[in-house]
Design brief:
With 223 residues, this protein is of the alpha/beta class. The chain is 35% helix and 26% strand. Helix 2 runs parallel beside helix 5.
């Protein structure tokens, strides 16, 4: 579905991605691991078109990268709009009358959002806001969903719920690329993974293989 081949990305003179290559098959849930500064967020920004590679290619089923939806870290909701209005913003490029199926899908995945649909987004809890930004991305009916640190700053119980939601979204047929510091939980729900280090892919494999890899265990799974 997605093929990334040797992309090089710079921030001015800083060489952030140094020939990164990886692929994702349709229907997969793939995790991207790495320490802070490894290039994970840069990779997602490049896939969503916020950054352009100087070299290398990105192919998403031969189509435009507009068919991706990016959920950045930090739960960036529109606080003065209601939950429902935030969701409709996610589908801004489509006719409002056609958003019914996506809205039903989002409410099925996140029943709390249905309960809070008339509530201002800025008054939602951190966990509810994370549900909202994921739901807002799903309103675009993306072929590929990019998630950047969805567990950041959330209580353990809410993190577990969010990861269950991500797994359910994937099982419903949405292809997912997940960037996550909680390596253990990310590998537990994903099919495959890649490890980035200083702008390079240094390891790849099935999630079960990476979980058993000594280097991954020592660096990301607490030994």
């Amino acid at each position: 579905m997605l093929t990334v081949n040797g992309i090089h990305v710079y921030y001015d003179a800083i060489h952030a991605l140094k020939g990164v290559s990886f692929s994702i098959e349709k229907g997969e849930l793939v995790t991207l691991l790495g320490a802070n500064g490894a290039g994970k967020t840069t990779t997602l920004k490049t896939l969503s078109g916020l950054l352009r590679p100087r070299r290398g290619t990105i192919d998403l089923e031969g189509t435009s990268l507009e068919t991706t939806a990016h959920v950045p870290e930090g739960r960036k909701v529109f606080p003065r709009f209601t939950t429902l209005e935030n969701l409709h913003i996610g589908g801004f490029s489509r006719a409002k009358a056609a958003l019914g199926p996506e809205l039903e899908f989002v409410f099925a995945m996140f029943p709390r959002l249905k309960e809070r649909q008339k509530q201002y987004a800025g008054t939602l809890s951190g966990g509810e806001q994370q549900m909202l930004v994921i739901g807002r991305a799903l309103m675009a009916k993306p072929k590929l969903l990019l998630l950047d640190e969805p567990s950041m700053g959330l209580a353990p119980k809410i993190v577990e719920q969010i990861f269950n939601n991500i797994q359910a979204i994937n099982r419903a047929g949405v292809t997912v690329l997940l960037v996550e510091q909680n390596a253990a939980m990310a590998l537990a729900i994903s099919h495959r993974g890649y490890v980035l280090e200083t702008g390079n892919v240094i390891l790849e494999g099935k999630s079960s293989e990476l979980t058993g890899n000594d280097r991954v265990r020592q660096a990301y799974l607490g030994g």
